Amino acid sequence: MTRDKKISELGEFGLISRIAAGVFAPDNVITGIGDDAAVTVTDQGMQLLTSTDMLLEDVHFRRRWHDPYRLGRKSLAVNISDIAAMGAIPRWALLSLAMPSDLPLNFLDDFTRGFLSMAGEHGVTLIGGDTCSSRSGLVISVTVMGEQLPALILRRSGARPGDDVWVTGTLGDAAMGLKLLEDGCVPSPLTGEGQGGGDYLVSRQLDPTPRSAAGLALAGAGLVTAMIDISDGILADFGHIAEMSGVGATLRLNDLPVSVPFRTAVRAFPQFPHHLVLSGGEDYELCFTAAPIHREKITELLKKCSLAGMPVGIVTSSPEVQVLDADGASFLPKKQGFNHFAP
Amino acid sequence: MTRDKKISELGEFGLISRIAAGVFAPDNVITGIGDDAAVTVTDQGMQLLTSTDMLLEDVHFRRRWHDPYRLGRKSLAVNISDIAAMGAIPRWALLSLAMPSDLPLNFLDDFTRGFLSMAGEHGVTLIGGDTCSSRSGLVISVTVMGEQLPALILRRSGARPGDDVWVTGTLGDAAMGLKLLEDGCVPSPLTGEGQGGGDYLVSRQLDPTPRSAAGLALAGAGLVTAMIDISDGILADFGHIAEMSGVGATLRLNDLPVSVPFRTAVRAFPQFPHHLVLSGGEDYELCFTAAPIHREKITELLKKCSLAGMPVGIVTSSPEVQVLDADGASFLPKKQGFNHFAP
Q: For residue A302, with 0-12 CB atoms within 10 Å meaning exposed, 13-18 middle and 19 or more buried, which class applies?
């Protein structure tokens, strides 16, 4: 066994080589890691899509919960999710890391393995980035670029009154997973298949799955009018579609899909935690709108992507987003999304 | 006078609107700030160049030295410099900010004004980014994208034995400026024209000028074999050209260009601080190689960009980079570049 090396023993160029060692570039990468800028080629006729997210230790993640492998996966996943939400093909990523100089080299290696595993699953190539030291915690900044034919790109604008509001997968799992972690649940080591209920919820928090195949399929089918990924809860995120499309919606509380592990975990609550379903962040599911006539086609198309999806409401011309309970009464949610700058 | 508002009073979307208010998008921006990803169009036949840099408070800058306006300018300038060093046209930028929640709104406004002023000077459009809260200092992550015809892109590889080694502008000014700040020099308020010697050096540290017009002109002329920007000192940065090109060089110590304010400031030193010229960081000048036959053309071309430039050495086939003093004796520099992770 070698002793636990720190990243400070390696130097910046040693670090970069170590990260770059696992990268294999396809033809659309002309120059990858190692020059002043990366050089890539967008396919003929395609437009370029770019998204970026920053993750800070003790703001977006805690090292005692987020093991480096899954942290690496998640830091790329949240950006791939943005590209997926535009219906585009994710292609290239930049990774910037500000690291405390006593960070164990093992941490960086596991983080990189995780990042590159997520990249591999979605056809993304790491083409560059930046490394520097941090005097406080770990800072991760990721930029992902993708491409798509102009006519197929899906925006937040475009929703029309009468459209169904759809969501993929289930809502609230990641928020419930975070709650379990906050309540002292210890994340299981990476076991692969066969995780229990609590583990499932925690893994939806620590290792979310960007819906890039579904996003791409929906864009290709030309059935969807507007799309966004659910990072801050459906209320806040559909709110962006509503605002950009100049519409509102009526969402049916009882139709919002929740998982079996979520229903099990809910038993510990004095009452059903609707706020986790409506405003819990980080599910990274897709929320989109489409004419009701396309219901069957969309269900089938999502099934081909091994993903469930269901209509959960109707787009309205009046600009409010309201939530109706089983009796058709208006349900007032407790809080909306997450305000980073709340005092 | 309004009281000094904090960013926490505005919320994430208020912040984004405030930053976006100063942005005017050209035709190559299809969708700018405000969707899951930005959508842009690369000109027909051009390749895409992407570079990213992260700046951390108390690592890369100090708020008591770096006023927000020049900090905004510099955070974009260092990335434009990378695109310039590839001989490409800078086009689009992403700006991510992690901010302490008690950051004054004035700081953000001045930072944004500075960032957008630099963007405007170089034809760059801000198309997206991320804002979040930081529990420690300010963190700035900027990604810049540019484009260029494949045949014109200049890389670190390509230098040939016998080529001249060129540098633009003067070396060591930014490092001397940093030294003055460290020694207690108070940066002058922004006075525009007519700054004195110390002010000039400090402003080269706080507000560097990316050489994008010169980089582009050099690429267009097809005379240059390899290029890099000098961010860590000519020794370290030419070292990258040497490594990627499989060459070395002999640099002439006395030909390395220094400014009049630098020569004046040097009088306070017991001996000439060669290490600031050879290994001082953040000048953001260009270092490139070209056959000696092109000397006149290159000088003229740089003059058209209002920039001086001179050959300072010769590329050699042996892989060492050596520095010769006036007597032709080998000069051993004290330190090479800056190691972020030095213990």
A: buried
